Structures are given as structure tokens and as C-alpha cells.
Amino acid sequence: MCSVRFAFAISFLLWLTAANAAGVKNFDIPAGAAGPAIRLLVWTPCAEPPQEMDARGAIFFAVPGCPVTGEKLPLIVISHGRRGWFGGHHDTAAALADAGFVVAALNHPGDTWRDTSRTDSLSVLVERPADISRLIDYMLDDWPDASRINAQRIGLYGFSFGGYTGLAVIGGNPDLRKGLPNCATSSLLACKQLENGDAPGQPITPDPRVKAAIIVDPYPAFVFAEKNLKRIATPVQLWSSDPAQNADGLSGCCAVAIKEGLVAPDYHFVANARHFSFLATCTPKEAQVNPAACTDAPGFDRVDFHRSFHADIVAFFRKHFAESASP
């Protein structure tokens, strides 16, 4: 155990030396007719030296409340995975902020590590995409520095259930009905609800404001019909972990199926990566509390992978935002 902790400590220290400076601050979207209150964390470009911050056992390398630098900044919204939280991809958010993006991550109501009251339910599958639209509305209209955002350059990053969320937001039109193929063998509560005759309480409406999307290990994938995926016009960079690491039942399970439906996605297969290898590098404390999410395959270096991963996603967003601005 000591050697494992030492290895994580060394990896974490290496991450700190390469970490990006970013401002960070909490905000709240109030409850209203559109839905319950939403807690969010926003990273922004920052000119001050970074600080080490402890957040629920995770260490962020950022500046609390740093004044935002820059104008007409692109916005990236982050959707976390099942039972995740808005800080699960904090190193990715910091890397994007350091590259000149405003990054807003939310806690999806009813499906976080703290509140699992609606995890896997039909209501969560329906409301997650609506959460993203509410987040974009807030960032463009009510966020204190809303005037600094370029509303024509909005991107999305979605991991796992957040990948499902992202595909729904950009027009994937998930098929949520009784008799859905593969639902009968799924453990999702939503599948049981559909088979019992429940129906979505509201339509899932795409958000055309999202101009580019990073989709990582999307789950569940079986709700997306190929014909619906082919209608997606938004540029997608699709990432897959390695099915050879599928002991968790998630690694490499779903991105290939989505890839076959999308039209020319920018597809990346990461050999030897596990599903949770896309989460931020763990501290020793996090590794002790949640070893499944913090333990990578032998020989896989999460710190090193995230350096190249971040470079690729920054390049993807810059490329497509530049193209969307072309006459």
C-alpha cells in the first residue's frame, strides 16, 4: 500500500509542475420553472500565479476568484459522468482555461456523488440535456462576466453519461421508448421504467448554440439509432478507452458503436486506457477512497496521457471555432 501511495504522490507532483493556471469560482443557477437549482464551477483565463486548493480531497491548481482576462472568449461546458461531480475533470478544465477558454462544469441534479436520488432514471436521461441548455443560458445572460463570452463559440465536453448528454444536446435524438433493443438486458433504471410504460416527461431538444463537441466513452450508447447519429452536423471529437480493459464493464464499451453512426468524427482510440483514465489524476487520498476510479492499467501513465489529450482537445476546439467564424 505504501508503494502505491508513493506512486500516486509522485504522479501527482509531476502533474502539479505541469498544471495550468486558471481562475476558479462557484456559482449557482437558481431553481425555477425550468428546473431545480444547479451548482456549477467556472474556470477562466487568469494572469495571477496559481495556488494549490483542496476540494473534496482533490487538489485543484488554480486561483480562487481570479479576475477574468480576455474578451470574446469561447465557452466550453462540461457534463460529468454517472454519479460524478463538477470537479471530476478539473485538470482538463484548467488546461482549457489556460488556453483562453471559459469553462463551466455543473452538477447534474439527482445524479452526483452526493445526490444519487435519480441516477439511471428516465428523468435524468431527459433532464441532463436540458441542464446543459440552462447552463449555457446562465453563462450568456446572468454570469457576472457574461459580456466576455463569444456566444458564437460554444463547445461541449461530455464524459460517460456526460457523453450521452452531449450527443443528445447536439441532435443525437435518443430513442427512449418501450421495446428498445438492448434495454431488456440493461441494468439502467430508465429501461425498467420504459418497459413499465413510463414515457419521457418532456421532449429532448437539441441546442444549436453548441458548435463543437468532445465525446468521451459515451454511455448508454444503445439509445442512439444510427440514422439519428448520421443527422448530427456538429463536429465531434470522439474518444474511446480500451475494451481490453473492460473488467469494469465500461472501458471501451460504447464509443465504437457511436463512431459507426457519426459522419466522419475525429476518432481517438487510447490503447490500455481504462474508462476512468479520462478523469483528473488522483491524489493519494482520492486513490485510497476510490481506487476503481484512480487505478490505471499497468504501464499506463495518466499524467502523460492527459498532457497529449489536452493538447488534442484544445486544438480541436480552436480549429472548429475558427472554421465556424469563417465567412
TrEMBL record:
Keywords: Hydrolase, Lipid degradation, Lipid metabolism, Signal. Residues 1-21 form the signal peptide. SUPFAM superfamilies: alpha/beta-Hydrolases (SSF53474). The keyword Hydrolase applies. It comes from the Bacteria. GO terms for molecular function: 1-alkyl-2-acetylglycerophosphocholine esterase activity. InterPro entries: AB_hydrolase_fold, UCP031982_abhydr. GO terms for biological process: lipid catabolic process. PANTHER family: PLATELET-ACTIVATING FACTOR ACETYLHYDROLASE. This is Dienelactone hydrolase. The lineage of its organism: Bacteria, Pseudomonadati, Pseudomonadota, Alphaproteobacteria, Hyphomicrobiales.
